[in-house]
């Protein structure tokens, strides 16, 4: 449990706190002329990069899981639960 | 379930939370910047009705189907509808806002170069919706 708290602390320091800080610091100055084309399309491309990266990792993991843990895999072994027949 | 480790699940949850926070922060920040209307923006009243757009400048000048603005200035559109839902869109400047009867919606933009751009209704509003178009004419700054 302690290590999980540690993991979340590390994540918070690395990502969550800087992201929140970034948001609260932005946009306080009055009325800048911004180019909405640039802002909106850049946001779109950043989000698409994240979406495709996450999509690739998730689908890659699923494909690997199905390939590696199929019954016919040379290194397939029953899990402890299957071996004992107790769940 | 003795000896079963759930570390991967916690790492997965942590990564998902961090990613969602980052995505939310980025989107929120851009939205704040985009919606932050400059104090000196000129107000233009935009009225949608079947099936054309009309515009009224701050000095009372009215235009139908065409909108003349100057490069380098900021404009705030106050968008009205006289009949059904429309949506005011200047595609080249990523301006898009619904015109809803009984409501005033606002959106702003600052054209940076002289030129002509299409204005189009983006909410199906009846038989001639497809032709509910206009022209944005961005002129060189007068001063």
Q: What kind of oligomer do you see?
A: heterodimer
Summed up, the helix count of chain B is 1
Give the C-alpha Rg of chain B.
21 Å
The best one-word shape of chain A is elongated
Task: Kindly identify the CATH topology of the largest domain in chain B.
Answer: Immunoglobulin-like
Summing up helix and strand content along with how strands pair, one would put the structural category of chain B as alpha+beta
Number of strands of chain A: 0
Give the overall form of chain B.
elongated
CATH class membership of the largest domain in chain B: Mainly Beta
* Total discrete domains of chain B: 2
| Largest interface, C-beta closer than 8 angstroms, per-chain residues | A-B, 30 and 34 residues
Please, what is the average pLDDT of chain A? 83
How many DSSP-defined strands of chain B?
10
Give the proportion of residues in helices of chain A.
over 70%
The CATH homologous superfamily of the largest domain in chain B: Cupredoxins -  blue copper proteins
Strand order of the largest sheet of chain B: 3-2-1-5-8
Low-confidence stretches of chain B: none
What's the story with the biggest beta sheet of chain A?
Answer: none
Beta-strand content bin of chain B: 35-45%
The number of helical elements of chain A comes to: 3
| Helix-and-strand structural type of chain A | mainly alpha
What does this structure look like?
- The complex is a heterodimer of chains A (87) and B (143).
- Chain A has helices spanning 2-25, 36-68, 80-84.
- Chain A has 87 residues and is mainly α.
- The mean pLDDT of chain A is 83.
- In chain B, β2 (52-56) and β3 (62-64) form a beta hairpin.
- Chain B starts with 6 loop residues before the first helix and ends with a strand.
- Chain B is built from one helix and ten strands.
- The chains are: A mainly alpha (87), B alpha+beta (143).
- Chain A binds chain B through residues 4, 7-8, 11, 14-16, 19-20, 22-23, 26-27, 30-37, 39-43, 46-47, 50, 54, and chain B through 10-11, 14-15, 17-19, 21-30, 32-34, 36-41, 74, 92-95, 109-110, 112.
């Amino acid at each position: 449990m302690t290590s999980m708290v540690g993991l979340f602390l590390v994540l918070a320091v690395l990502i969550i706190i800087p992201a929140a800080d970034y948001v609260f610091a932005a946009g306080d100055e009055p009325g800048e002329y911004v180019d909405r084309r640039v802002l909106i399309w850049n946001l779109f491309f950043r989000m698409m990069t994240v979406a495709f990266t996450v999509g690739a990792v998730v689908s890659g993991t699923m494909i690997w899981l199905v390939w590696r843990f199929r019954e016919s895999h040379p290194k397939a072994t029953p899990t402890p639960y299957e071996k004992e027949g107790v769940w | 379930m003795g000896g079963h480790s759930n570390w991967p699940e916690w790492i997965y949850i942590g990564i998902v939370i961090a990613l969602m926070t980052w995505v939310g922060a980025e989107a929120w920040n851009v939205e704040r910047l985009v919606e932050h209307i400059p104090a000196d923006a000129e107000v233009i009243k935009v009225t949608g009705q079947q099936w054309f757009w009309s515009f009224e400048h701050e000095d009372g000048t009215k235009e139908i189907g065409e909108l003349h603005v100057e490069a380098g200035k900021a404009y705030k559109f106050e968008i009205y509808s006289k009949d059904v839902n429309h949506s005011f869109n200047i595609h080249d400047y990523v301006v898009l806002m619904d015109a809803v009867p009984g409501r005033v919606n606002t959106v702003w933009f600052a054209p940076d170069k002289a030129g002509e751009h299409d204005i189009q209704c983006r909410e199906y509003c009846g038989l001639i919706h497809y032709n509910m178009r206009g022209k944005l004419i961005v002129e060189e700054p007068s001063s």
